Amino acid sequence: MSTRPTDEGLALSVEVVVFGVDDSDLKLLARRREGEPFAGRWALPGGLVGGDEALEGAARRVLAEAGGVSPAYLEQLYTFGAIDRDPRRRTVSVAYYGLVRLADPRAPASAPEGGAAWFVASAAPRLALDHDEIAATARRRLQAKVRYEPIGFELLPRKFTLSQLQALYEVILERALDKRNFRKKILAMDLLADSGKVEADVARRPARLYRFDERRYRRLCKQGFNFEV
Amino acid sequence: MSTRPTDEGLALSVEVVVFGVDDSDLKLLARRREGEPFAGRWALPGGLVGGDEALEGAARRVLAEAGGVSPAYLEQLYTFGAIDRDPRRRTVSVAYYGLVRLADPRAPASAPEGGAAWFVASAAPRLALDHDEIAATARRRLQAKVRYEPIGFELLPRKFTLSQLQALYEVILERALDKRNFRKKILAMDLLADSGKVEADVARRPARLYRFDERRYRRLCKQGFNFEV
Question: What ipTM describes this predicted complex?
């Protein structure tokens, strides 16, 4: 049992794990640390929480500082509080994770400013402090969550094909999915509304365009429906 | 954007939502606040985190102080950091939630010491500060989680009947379940091992006793299996 009160030397920070999705990879945003300890090493975007700043506000601020990244989806992940996680002083970190769509991953313009860069999540460099553990926790949470909550749709255009949806899931889950099973599961949930339109400007037979029926999803949830991919 | 650093007046606390399960109700542990503000009002067990104390350690300590409650299941819930959640000073609370089995809910001995008491969760008194919000978040999380992770088994005897399992789920979910559907779903997952034994000392036809096959569950999870009730 401890008698040392929290306000002697305890600091509170946020760290944010941002996953970027492009056509082929799940990517992770990291930035080079400027200060000691671990100056020059890659780390998650993060920083101390201001005394009059909300936690999610602090998470969005550190992302704005890391090249202006603004995730379509942002959620609190977990609070990491191991006593020795920072060598300077006891720092408890409230971690968030978010998702952004990377418009064109090959264009250099997609690399954010502020010493930040995107890495393929499965091949990212070692991160400073306990940030590898934070990133691994976020990756597990993301991959579990997309299977039972429809958070992937926020990364698609409003109207999309089933192939685009499957490709998105394959990138997030980092593995191939069986096309027939995937379509069967998705269509059986009856959450996709046929837009009545098909793809434009494709050489092959154009595929049907769907949209996610959010209102129907909310209604079904109240009746005990479980999303599952 | 804030410039006030965290260590000017920011405090870190833990609050713990403990759910007690008996034969008929989901119960919530609350204790009377001794100090101001809200002295005498019911609140969740909680307190400041010691400077050299792990977060879960602090959660277990405040439960030990609230009558020696020791949950079979304890997990971090969410970190509540609204700027004005405590009128005294900025206090960020790392909330945990846990589950305990109440041996005999009618016996006065099951009421813990230290000004704490069990309330039926759906009829608990208003709690101080933002503790109603924390408790509601925990109840939603628990009820979602028991459906896709086998955390309920930790509250049963090692060998149990299907009726005992269903009763436990009904208490946690706070609603009746269809017996046939429940048995079908549970048995289809093939996670219960037949113990080869039946109930002893019952007047009616004794029911078969099962045990949860944890090793098999771990193995199936690695193959992408999803628990679902």
Answer: 0.88
